[in-house]
Write a structure and sequence with these properties.
about 350 residues; alpha+beta; Phosphorylase Kinase, domain 1; Transferase(Phosphotransferase), domain 1; 2 domains; three-stranded antiparallel beta sheet; 9 helices; about 30% helix; elongated; binds adenosine-5'-diphosphate; binds magnesium ion
Length: about 350
């Protein structure tokens, strides 16, 4: 098995030749191709860390008079089309298991010759990385950041209640639709709680983004909600500070320099965010919504010192005990395609993968 993927290769574009016996390497379909006798590939849309996304149309749905826009995803960096198909099948299975409104919907997947493909609902909008990229100083006001990330936190909470962990929460995987919904993308890395190095599913592949992955993920420890809470805290920090809390060059074992307080946070808010970014997962809030709810509760500018600690303790406690029914299920969200260097994709995470 390949131990790791070369993500630096630009996919070669060419027509699909389904009549020839499938060669080993994945083939890239040209616009105008019809996949599975049904999905028309219209144009290239985005390149993610591990895949290429096309805009497409479901010809069958169109004929039946249903909405027919789809996104077509083709995994890159994996030579074997059969392995790529199995990974797409896992994304489809995960989507069926997790019907949360805040998660991307996967409709179908298949393989046409040497072209494996995944069919998703089409989203109009942009991802959070793209939004940050075009924002002044690459950051957003805290209030706007909270509006975007609260539904993400609620979606993560719903996932965690089902015993699942996303493990790749980052700006490129948060999509903001033009009609105001926030969607968490990319189900390729969703793992079961407690799922560790030895239980990574039939494909044997795992991916994560070093700049946002928790120390536990980078150290191959079993998946837990604390991984997503840490990543969410990294995203919140970046969204309000305009820089990542830790340099992406930080490797496991390194002690990265402590992040600096973003100017828009009061001491109580900073204390909560700092704890959420702690390498010791015991210090982080118990739930993803606790982070966002705590930020709101601690918003009083006068709070500092012991008063801040009291509010912080109340914020974390209230959020940790909040029953699921009390959480507002909001929709909305998206992000810029991450640079290849932001993603690490490796068959054995004990071996360093490509940056
Ligand atoms: N269903 C979709 N509709 C519209 N754009 C999408 C959709 N899915 C992904 N994208 C865009 O493509 C980018 C990469 O998609 P993603 O599923 O995260 O792939 P990767 O696994 O390569 O990161 C996203 O950041 C987003 O901008
Ligand atoms: Mg992605």
């Amino acid at each position: 098995m390949n131990r790791q993927c070369d993500l630096s290769t630009t996919p070669p574009f060419g027509p699909v030749a389904p009549s020839r016996p499938a060669p080993r390497a994945v083939q890239w379909p040209a616009p105008g191709s019809v996949l599975g006798g049904r999905y028309l590939l219209l144009r290239h849309h985005a390149s993610g860390g591990t895949s290429v996304i096309y805009r497409g149309r479901d010809l069958l749905a169109e004929r039946a008079g249903y909405p027919a826009d789809v996104a077509i995803k083709i995994i890159r960096g994996i030579d074997d089309p059969e392995l790529a198909l199995r990974m797409s099948m896992l994304e489809l299975a995960t989507s069926r298991r997790l019907p949360e409104a805040g998660l991307i919907r996967v409709h179908d997947c298949g393989r046409q010759g040497a072209t494996p493909y995944l069919i998703m609902e089409w989203l109009e909008g942009e991802n959070l990385a793209e939004l940050l990229h075009r924002s002044p100083d690459r950051r957003l006001p805290l209030r706007r950041a909270a509006t975007i990330l609260t539904p993400v936190a609620n979606t993560l909470f719903a996932l965690h209640r089902r015993g699942m962990v996303h493990t790749d929460v980052k700006p490129g995987n948060i999509f903001l639709t033009t009609d105001g919904r926030v969607k968490l993308l990319d189900l390729a890395t969703v793992r079961e709680m407690g799922d560790g190095q030895e239980q990574r599913g039939e494909t044997g592949w795992l991916g994560y983004s070093p700049a946002y992955a928790s120390p536990e993920t980078r150290n191959d420890e079993p998946a837990s909600p604390q991984d997503d809470i840490y990543s969410l805290a990294c995203v919140l920090y970046e969204t309000i500070a305009g820089t990542k809390p830790y340099p992406s060059t930080a490797e496991k074992g390194d002690a990265p320099p402590a992040p600096r307080r973003p100017g828009t946070l009061n001491p109580a808010q900073w204390e909560l965010l700092r704890r959420s970014l702690a390498s010791d997962h015991e210090k982080r809030p118990r739930s993803a919504p606790a982070l966002l709810q705590g930020m709101r509760l601690a918003a009083t500018p006068m709070l500092a010192g012991w008063a801040a600690s009291v509010v912080l303790a109340i914020a974390v406690l209230v959020a940790a005990l909040a029953p699921h029914e009390n959480l507002v299920e909001e929709e909305g969200g998206t992000v810029e395609a991450p640079a290849t260097s932001e993603y690490r994709y490796t068959a054995d995470r004990r071996q360093p993968g490509n940056e």
